[in-house]
Amino acid sequence: MSDHNHNHNDGHDHNHNGHPHHHDHTAVHEKKTRWVVMLTFVTMVVEIAIGYYSNSMALTAEGWHMASHVFAIGLTWIAYILVRKYAESKHVAFQKDKLLALSGFTSAIILLIIAIIMVIESITRLITPETIKFQEAIVVAIIGLVVNGISASVLHHKHEHTDNNIRAAYIHVMADGITSVMAILALLSVRYLGWTSLDALSGILGSIVISTWSFSLIRSSGSVLIDFSRKKKEE
Hints:
Helix content is 84%, strand content 0%. It contains 8 helices and no strands. The two termini are 17 Å apart. The protein has helices at 2-12, 19-54, 57-86, 96-127, 134-155, 164-193, 197-225, 228-234.
C-alpha cells in the first residue's frame, strides 16, 4: 500500500498544491540544460578533433571528458522533458527520482568505458610519444575553459540547490572546467619546460577523475534504483 501511494504521489504531486511553481522551474531548467548541451557538444567535437590532430592527449582527454558530460547533461535535459510531458497525465504514473537515477546510472557506465579508452590511449603515447602541435591545442583548450565558465554561469542559480538534477549538471560542468585547466597546464609544461610525458600523464589523470566521478554516481543512482534509502527508513 505504501509503495502504491509513493508511486502515485511521485507521478502526480505536480497536479495539486505547488504545481505551477514546479512546472515553471522544470521549464526553466529544461531550457538551461538544452542550451548547455548544445554549446558543450560543439566545443566537444572541436576539442576531440583538434586533440587528435595536434597529438595532444591532454586536450583529447578533456574533449572526451566533455563528451561524457554532454551525454550526462543530455540525459538531464531529456528527464526534464519527460517530467514536463507526463506531469499532468492521468494515464502515466512514474517516479521522477527513478527516472533521473536511471539516466545517471547509464551515464556512469558510459563514463567508465571512456575512462578505459583514455588510459589505453595515454599509455600508448607514453610508450611512443608524438610531437604536439602546441598552437592549435592551447587555443582550443582555452576556448573549452571559457565555454565551461559560460555553462556554469547559465546553470548556477541561488535556488538550484533544491533540484538535484540541475545541481548534478552544474557539477558536471565544473568538473569539465577542472580538466580544461589540467589540459592547459600540461600543454604549457610541454611547450616551455619540455615535459613531454606530462601530456600523456594528464590524460591518465583525467581518466582517474572521470572514473572516480563515475563510481560515485553509480553508488548514488544505484541506491535510488534499488530503493536502498527507503529500505533503511522502513527498518
